[in-house]
Design brief:
Layout lengths: L11 H18 L5 E5 L6 E3 L3 H6 L6 H6 L5 H11 L9 E3 L1 H6 L7 E5 L3 H11 L5 E4 L3 H4 L9 E6 L8 H15 L4 E8 L2 H10 L6 E7 L11 E7 L5 H16 L4 E7 L2
Parallel strand pairs: 1-4, 1-6, 4-5, 6-7
Antiparallel strand pairs: 2-3, 7-9, 8-9, 8-10
């Protein structure tokens, strides 16, 4: 599949991914020590939902537009709502933050962010979005290769692996990257975003992660997994997840299915691998 960040910006999968990322970031920062964040596939960092790509897919209308209309939303959803509001004047969400912008806006003194983006045009836009921030570095190289090399040393680490799944080996490279990270820093928190099209593909991916330790898995199915040609949902697979994150993801996934789903289901569980 081709999960272009720009084409799908602000859709339901972004809500799951970004609300989950903010929850993990808050839980890890609550420990007080400096946090190093690594984003292996940064994209542009900031998206214009009025741009041709976003308007062509119209997925933001069924995602972030509904997010911003939600009242009395639970805490993980409110955190993302507030992040979007800070970028926009008025009630309409034209601009949507990617993961590098969300993290950069929340860095404390002593925290850092290294973002990888291999595509030159995306990397240039990413530099404009976050490159001037203190503690932020943008690298125009392969995050699968470079990200795991940065997790050693002192301090806590949070790694986001969020590829566009344009290549046939993305699942394998995600598994390889996680294995390398866990070998270098067993206490690192690694969050992998993955699409859900059919259950066998996802189950095969989880089998590829055997040996990487306990995983926290949050699965959002907007609809039953009957059509393998559609993205029917998405999942977050997290190694080294803090224990408090389980309830955050349960709340987030349940809200997403109830507010945006079409007869789907949510499931959050831990699995020893």
């Amino acid at each position: 599949m081709n999960y272009s960040h720009a084409l799908h910006a602000g859709n339901f999968a972004d809500i799951v991914k970004h609300a989950g990322l903010l929850a993990a970031l808050a839980r890890l920062q609550a420990h007080g020590e400096g946090l190093g964040v690594i984003d292996t596939h940064g994209g542009r960092g900031l998206y214009d939902l009025a741009a041709p790509e976003a308007r062509r897919s119209a997925e933001a209308e069924r995602g972030v537009a509904r997010l911003m209309e939600a009242t009395a939303a639970p805490a993980p959803i409110r955190a993302l709502q507030q992040a979007v509001r800070t970028l926009n004047e008025g009630p309409v969400a034209r601009f949507y933050p990617g993961s590098p912008r969300l993290v950069a806006d929340r860095l404390r003194p002593g925290d850092s962010l290294v973002v990888f983006e291999l595509k030159p045009r995306e990397a240039s836009a990413l530099v404009a979005a976050v490159g001037a921030r203190a503690g932020v570095e943008v690298r125009g190289t392969d995050g699968y290769d470079g990200g795991p090399d940065l997790v050693g040393g002192e301090g806590r680490r949070l790694v986001l692996i969020d590829p566009p799944f344009e290549r046939g080996d993305d699942y394998a490279r995600c598994a390889q990257a996680l294995s390398r990270i866990r070998a270098r820093a067993a206490n690192a928190t690694v969050m992998i975003w993955a699409p859900l099209k059919d259950l066998e593909t996802f189950d095969a991916f989880l089998r590829d992660l055997e040996g990487c330790g306990e995983l926290l898995i949050a699965e959002v199915r907007l609809r039953p997994l009957r059509d393998p040609l559609r993205m029917n949902g998405c999942a977050l697979v997290i190694a080294g997840a803090p224990p408090e994150l389980d309830s955050d993801l349960e709340t987030l996934c349940a809200w997403t299915v109830a507010a945006l789903g079409e007869g789907g289901a949510a499931r959050v569980w831990r699995q020893a691998c």
